[in-house]
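FIELD: query
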Amino acid sequence: MSTFKNYEAMVLSCIDPRFQDLVHKENAKKGLTNKYSAFTIAGGSIGVVAPTFKKWHQTFWENLDISVQLHNIKKVIVINHRDCGGAVAAYGQEKFANKEIETETHKSALNEFKKQLKIRHPKLEVELYLMDLDGSVISFD
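FIELD: result
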C-alpha cells in the first residue's frame, strides 16, 4: 500500500455549501493547497462530538485513522462556522440565540473535539476555528 508524504493536515469542516470556497481560501492562505485531507460533515466538530449525531462519530475517527496512516498527517484543523443548521439540529436554537452564546457553543464543541483527539491521537496537533459568514475566523488555540 502506498503512502503520500506530502500531506500536512486533515481539515474537518461542515457540509454547508456557503463555506466550501471560504474554507478552501483559508487553507490556501496557510499554504495548504493540495496538502490536506478533507473531511466534511454537518456541523464540523459538532458532527463528531454531539450526542445527536452519535452514529456518525465512529466514521470520522476511522477516517482520521486511515488518513494518518496513508497521508502521514501531523495535525487536524477544525473549522466550524456561524449560522450552522447542523449545530442548531444538535443543540437546539437556544444555544444560538445570540452571537456570544453561539460562540460559546462552538467553542465548547471544538474543545470537546480536541479532548477526544488527544485521547485517540495524542501526537497530532490541532487548530480550532470558528468562521463567520464573511470568511473571517476566530481561533480557539
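FIELD: remark
Residues 52 and 81 are 18 Å apart (CA to CA).
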